[in-house]
Design a protein that fits this description.
The chain has 11 helices and 14 strands. With 343 residues, the chain is of the alpha/beta class. The chain folds into 2 domains: 59 residues, Orthogonal Bundle (DNA polymerase, domain 1); 273 residues, TIM Barrel (Alpha-Beta Barrel). The strands form 3 sheets. The chain has a 10-stranded mixed beta sheet. A two-stranded parallel ribbon has the order 1-2. Strands 7-8 form a two-stranded antiparallel sheet. A hairpin with a 5-residue loop joins strand 4 and strand 5. It starts with a strand and ends in a 20-residue tail after the last strand. The relative contact order is 0.13.
């Protein structure tokens, strides 16, 4: 009989499991701590659990993580992992080193339903939501490989739209930030969304202390609809109202991600529109040159053009950071590697 994988089980799930096994519920917290906090996956070594209980767990359960199918490492140190899931779908995880601190980009879905015109994941279409365990598994893989200091920052900015997998994303964040889980501060977790307005309000009203990043990429509805189809449903007025609500409710500065496409959203008019759009919102703007995807028509601007855009934008907005593209030589943009695989 195939064993049940406990990867992704929350504290309450493990408490219920113990109750089903005829044990006290508090033993579920002990099991949770062994698996996530101590990174111990051999039930026989969980010494505060009785021998009969350990035998029951060994017989019926396991804690099995993700296994990489392809690993690529860039000359700039960026690492990209392709994981094959049990059903044959593929997801990617990217580890980005920066000044002694590593950021991990997590996937939340296999494929994506939103079909943004510049995104390799969008070309795949939507396969399915990732389970809580598959989200957590990306982090556990990296900790098994590199230890507890494998990463310092987490961004839900990989494959998929995290706010369309809201419940599993929240469940994963709760395990990640639990004091007996992965013990990673929610203040160092960012959720990036293309602008799912109802879920932004929901996240604002939640107890989660995560940061929010908006994939903006254009400052007018006319341009944004050309590259982000969901913008036809949630226009900039509605999006900015939700952003302001998040900022006021959470008391947090927000991040706007702005990818620059050569000749599309890089003019002085675009700078003025962007400055006007975010006026009065405590924020920072991350500028990034488009990371080319072979099958798509948008072009990468020169570094000089990106720097000039930032120089002209900065006096008009609170903060601007020009991000250097990472992993160009290993196709590190979301979905570029997974899109080549067949389920």
């Amino acid at each position: 009989m195939k064993k049940i994988n406990l990867l992704g089980f929350a504290i309450a799930d493990m408490e219920n499991l113990m109750q089903e096994l005829g044990e006290k519920r508090f033993k579920g917290r002990q099991l949770f701590k062994w698996l996530y906090y101590f990174n111990e996956y051999n039930f026989d070594r969980m010494t505060d659990l009785s021998l009969p209980l350990r035998q029951k767990l060994t017989k019926k359960y396991e804690f099995s993580g993700l296994n990489e199918e392809i690993v690529r490492k860039s000359v700039d140190g960026t690492e990209k992992y392709l994981f094959a899931l049990d059903d044959g779908n593929h997801i990617e995880t990217v580890l980005i080193p920066d000044k002694g601190k590593n950021t991990v980009c997590l996937s939340s879905q296999a494929g994506c339903a939103l079909g943004c015109r510049f995104c390799a994941t969008g070309l795949m279409g939507f396969k399915r939501n990732l389970t809580c365990g598959e989200i957590i598994g990306q982090l556990i893989f990296l900790r098994r490989k590199y230890g507890s200091e494998a990463f310092q920052n987490i961004v839900f900015m990989g494959m998929g739209e995290p706010l369309l997998n809201y419940d599993n994303m929240v469940a994963a964040i709760e395990i990640i930030s639990s004091e007996i889980g992965l013990v990673h501060s929610a203040k160092k977790i960012s959720v990036s969304t293309v602008g799912i307005v109802p879920q932004i309000y929901k996240l604002a009203d939640s107890d989660l202390k995560v940061n929010l990043a908006i994939s903006l990429h254009a400052a007018t509805d006319e341009k944004r609809k050309k590259i982000i189809p969901i913008a036809a449903k949630y226009d900039l007025k509605a999006l900015m109202e939700a952003v302001r609500y998040f900022v006021e409710t959470k008391g947090k500065r927000i991040t706007f991600e702005y990818i620059i496409f050569d000749g599309f959203n890089d003019s002085m008019d675009d700078i003025k529109a962007l400055a006007g759009l975010i006026r009065g919102i405590p924020c920072k703007i991350n500028l990034l040159a488009y990371n080319p995807v072979g099958a798509l028509t948008y072009n990468r601007p020169s570094d000089e053009k990106v720097n000039e855009f930032g120089r002209l934008l900065y006096p008009r907005v609170p903060a601007v950071t020009v991000r250097k593209s990472r992993g160009l030589d290993i196709e590190a943009a979301c979905g570029q590697l997974a899109g080549k695989q067949r389920p």
